[in-house]
Amino acid sequence: MSAEKLSFEDFRPGRRFVLGPKPVTTEEIIEFASEFDPQPMHLDEAAGRASILGGLAASGWHTSSMFMRMMADSYLLTALAEGAPGIDLMEWRKPVLAGDTLSGHSTVLESRPMRSRPGMGIVKFRHEVENQRGQLVLVSENSVMLRMRPETSA
Amino acid sequence: MSAEKLSFEDFRPGRRFVLGPKPVTTEEIIEFASEFDPQPMHLDEAAGRASILGGLAASGWHTSSMFMRMMADSYLLTALAEGAPGIDLMEWRKPVLAGDTLSGHSTVLESRPMRSRPGMGIVKFRHEVENQRGQLVLVSENSVMLRMRPETSA
């Protein structure tokens, strides 16, 4: 089964993966905010309009979590991925409002074998997510640990 | 009411806010992962043990979202906060495992009035979250926009 999965070697610099589309609903925004970020502009339409966000807006952490799911569905769930040590860059460029639809892409910037973990490599990505009006809402860069194919790492 | 809230002026460099404690349950880890990060090590104890994380481990995005809630409960919900443009730094230093309890602190690094938005300032924080064994699990830096007191911004 692993043989059919994407391994470190498949993530060559320049390779691009499509993210989304992912529609964002009022209910999802309020549900996430209620649990993790209960600030008024993420819970209530009127409070959102009164804020600098201009409407009921997803928490930035919610947008980031939806983006994670878009990466999972696009390539991580079919890859020999072992997680990420963090985020190098995360910019919430524009508010994500109820009714928006998100889409984007992940591009491999660089990849290298890990010295500390034989048989594994680290792949650095740049990610861009935009709304249905073509406006960038999220820009991110991070690195993911991926296992090599057994014949390569042996 | 606003007069009693924390404003930009209250976030002087060096001021420190306590985060947590926040216990992390198996159910929460699986619920978040099912929606946003359905990789096996975040969904299943055996898969977690077989991974480099060493057990059923929260998605990094879940840890970050729990950290957001800790900030909200500590100081953001009682402040004139207007959101954040992104994250400058986010390191997931150690896995967060089911049964862990998270706590930490946010420290103001610097604060300055925003040129582009009169009556608002931007406050940069450094955040550290550790587990019940005193191991750092999350280190982050970000900047939050906060309104000034009316008499100050007039």
Automatic annotation (TrEMBL), chains A, B:
Occurrences of domain MaoC-like (ranges): 15-115
TM regions (residue ranges): none
InterPro entries from the UniProt entry: HotDog_dom_sf, MaoC-like_dom, MCH/BMMD
Alphabetical list of SUPFAM superfamilies matching this protein: Thioesterase/thiol ester dehydrase-isomerase
Pfam families for the chain: MaoC_dehydratas
Xref: PANTHER family: BETA-METHYLMALYL-COA DEHYDRATASE, MONOAMINE OXIDASE-RELATED
Descriptive protein name: Enoyl-CoA hydratase
